[in-house]
Amino acid sequence: MSFSIQEQLHHLDHIAEFQWKKMTEAEEHSTKPARQANGDVVAETSAVEDIFDDTYKEKEGPKPPIKIVWKNVILMSGLHIGALYGLLIIPSASILTLMWSVFCFLVSALGVTAGAHRLWSHRSYKASLPLRIFLAIANSMAFQNDIFEWARDHRVHHKYSETDADPHNAVRGFFFSHIGWLLVRKHPDVIEKGRKLELTDLKADKVVMFQRRYYKPSVLLMCFFIPMWVPWYFWGESLWVGYFIPGLLRYTLVLNATWLVNSAAHMWGNRPYDQNINPRENKFVTFSAIGEGFHNYHHTFPYDYATSEFGWKLNLTTCFIDFMCFLGLAKDCKRVSRELVLARVQRTGDGSHRTG
């Protein structure tokens, strides 16, 4: 009996997915903490909380009323006005201050992409204690909620993507998925589903819980004071410029780069891996969010540490993680096989897949 290439790829796809599910189910039952070499107790629970749950059904009837959080509206408006002013005074800043701002942007972004996202939300690789401490500090510089809350909400986003239980449901439009979701009360289903997630691994990570406990002072120090103080102390920049450019402007740019993953990358672009879901491949988002714009791939294979099949291409976060592996600070990076990718492309892609 002979099979076509398409049939063979389809069969391989199902086998690989079955093997992955069996592996994660086995991990899910392993709830006993294990002591690592660095002395931290880390839960081995790897419940697949970031895999889409197609059994969820939205409640029938009228949607709950939208409740605006006016404090957030005022704060976000003030932040963006301050960032706009920071743009206007860029000509008055020294080249060192601008370089420092770019550096702070990259550190902040890595705290989200390599830290809260790929490490703590998806457990796509393992990080040593020094690397986890660095990523937690970088995450405080990004100021996008503490790691525990960020990872919890992101797992809910993957598990219930584009439904009422998705914190930034892109079906509700660009503005809502970009920033609007932070200006209103969460939908009751988001809160309900978030409470039911298995978060043992986050609770067992001492770095995560330490950052959560001291989050506010760590944000004041890393997001605002350090970016402002360094240019003033080391090369005589004014505190005014230090506050508005490496402080507010850099912070606002990191926020919007992250939000574009929730909004633009769910609306514009191609879907070479799964045309049945909203997330897209968006090169602009990939560039601005240092590698997070390969979003159709990421939602298809959320456990892949690279969030892309193309390695380092437009993916600074993957470069960083690989460098940490080279230094011995990270290991066990999860990767999707080339065969599984191609099988999925053949089965559910939109026909736009390219090899590079």
From TrEMBL:
Residues 100-303 form the Fatty acid desaturase domain. GO terms for cellular component: endoplasmic reticulum membrane. It is found in: Endoplasmic reticulum membrane. It is an enzyme of class 1 (oxidoreductase). Its main location: endoplasmic reticulum. Keywords: Endoplasmic reticulum, Fatty acid biosynthesis, Fatty acid metabolism, Iron, Lipid biosynthesis, Lipid metabolism, Membrane, Metal-binding, Oxidoreductase, Transmembrane, Transmembrane helix. The keyword Transmembrane helix applies. It holds the Pfam family FA_desaturase. It catalyses: octadecanoyl-CoA + 2 Fe(II)-[cytochrome b5] + O2 + 2 H(+) = (9Z)-octadecenoyl-CoA + 2 Fe(III)-[cytochrome b5] + 2 H2O. Its EC number is 1.14.19.1. One of its GO terms (molecular function) is palmitoyl-CoA 9-desaturase activity. The keyword Repeat does not apply. It comes from the Eukaryota. It is a multi-pass membrane protein. One of its GO terms (biological process) is monounsaturated fatty acid biosynthetic process. Its cofactor is Fe(2+). The chain crosses the membrane at residues 73-92, 98-120, 214-234, 240-261. Belongs to the fatty acid desaturase type 1 family. The histidine box domains are involved in binding the catalytic metal ions. This is stearoyl-CoA 9-desaturase. It comes from Megalops atlanticus. The lineage of its organism: Eukaryota, Metazoa, Chordata, Craniata, Vertebrata.
